[in-house]
Amino acid sequence: MQFPRIRIVRHKTEGESVTISNHIEKIREGLRRGTFTSEAAVSQGILLPALHELGWPVFDTNVVVPEFSLEGRRVDFALCHPPSRPSVFVEVKKVGLSEGADRQLFEYAFHLGMPMAILTDGQEWSFYLPGEQGRYDERRVYKLDLLERDIEESANRLERYLSYERVCSGEALKAARSDYQNVARDREIEAALPRAWALLLEEPDSLLLELLAEKVEDLCGYKPDLDLCSKFLSRSQKQGMDVAPTQPPMSGPKQHTPKGRDRTTQSRTIENFSFVFDGKTYQAGSAREVMVKVFQLLAEADDGFLERFASRKHGKKRRYISRDRKDLYPGHPDLAEEHSIEFVPGWWLGTNYSRSNIQRILELALEVAQPNIRASIRVNVK
Fold first, then answer.
1. In DSSP terms, which residues pair with 224 in a beta bridge?
2. Which of 127, 132, 218, 371 gives 139 a disulfide partner, CB atoms 3.0 to 4.6 angstroms apart?
């Protein structure tokens, strides 16, 4: 005997945005602690609860289809309307590892004529229209970072592109296409460029500092320490980027720093650093030594710390720690060889960072550490 299919319609209530906002806040807390250590954790702890709050019947595998497969291809989730007919593909990656994963998703989505595709590592959500023109990144409607955007903006974007009712009615796709074509996006980018540049100068990523150091070496033969580059950028920002040389250029032939020489020994005043861990004071000769020792102590005190920290999003492309040394400096095997240390067996830590970078890495480590351990440590290398 066949029973008629019962369709449950979930109407949006006044409190719905509050509910998804609460979930986003929980996600942010979990991301900061490094709770989501695998793709499965991102799927079960972030994506599926978010879909539930957005109205999707996550227990109906004809609507939210896991491991959707067709013609030898597979995508993590297919969101269907009507049931068993995909409307949105969702590909899930481990936190911090979504870079470059759009190609596989696009090939599948485009092949099946999928109007919308989403790539997420839990922290970053990229919404794509595969059928539009241009490179993969040019067909991205919006990139949402749950730790960078405020909660209200994050909730609004998720509801706009991913709420069950809006996907079923076609409003989500209509909104995505409108946003894709909206020239206001270009104006927002132009408005954000000066602020983005100012933030880069204020807290420069190690890749920016490395590029500056290499260019200085090209010009004069000496490769400066990354701390010196960081101070220069900070001073230039305060002076309105007046970068005129304060001293005449040196004469004579170029002299190159011998390969493999530790940059911390170049034109640096010897400094003493110390930090407190579990009531004991530790001494170090540099910020890098502080970083290495803190990571060793945290790994010893907390068995799960390294896996949780590794699951966090790190630099733009680099990984601060990794089991594979090459992941620390993608595309730069020379840096991986010269500026990394196996601080505990099986784990590598990059050391080619300025003092301000190291401070941020340590702050990230303390976010991930267990509360009782976090309360027992005091460290500052600024």
1. none
2. 132
Residue indicated by tokens 């959500």: 125
Helices (H), the chain: 16-33, 39-42, 48-53, 102-111, 151-162, 164-169, 171-181, 184-202, 206-220, 226-238, 287-301, 305-311, 333-338, 355-368, 371-374
d(CA 172, CA 157): 10
Q: What is the DSSP string of 316-333?
A: SS--SEESSGGGGSTT-H
DSSP state of 212: H
Compute how many other C-beta atoms are within 10 angstroms of the C-beta atom of residue 205: 18
Select from 83, 92, 109 the least CA-distant residue to 45.
92
Share of the chain above pLDDT 90, in %: 40
Cα–Cα dist 46/52, whole Å: 10
Phi, psi of 276 (to 5 degrees): -115, 130
Report DSSP letters for 306-369, one per residue. HHHHHHS--SSS--SEESSGGGGSTT-HHHHHHSEEEEETTEEEE----HHHHHHHHHHHHHHS
Give the model's pLDDT for residue 212. Answer: 87
Give yes or no for a contact between 239 and 205, defined as CB atoms under 8 angstroms apart: no
- Do 20 and 130 reside in the same domain of the chain? yes
Q: Are residues 28 and 55 in the same domain?
A: yes
Whole-model pTM: value is 0.62
pLDDT value of residue 3: 36
Q: Is the preceding omega at residue 82 within 30 degrees of 0, hence cis?
A: yes
Domain residues for 333?
Answer: 273-378
Confirm whether 315 is domain-assigned: yes
Residue 62 φ then ψ, to 5°: -90, -15
CATH classification of the domain holding 117: 3.90.1570
Q: Is residue 10 part of a domain?
A: no
Return the bridge partners of 145, or none: 124
Q: What is the pLDDT of residues 121-143, one digit of tens each?
A: 999 999 988 877 666 667 788 88
Q: Is residue 105 within 8 Å of 117, Cβ to Cβ? A: yes
Are 295 and 370 in the same domain? Answer: yes
Domains in the chain: how many in total? 3
Q: Is 256 within a domain? A: no
Q: Token digits for 328?
A: 């620390």
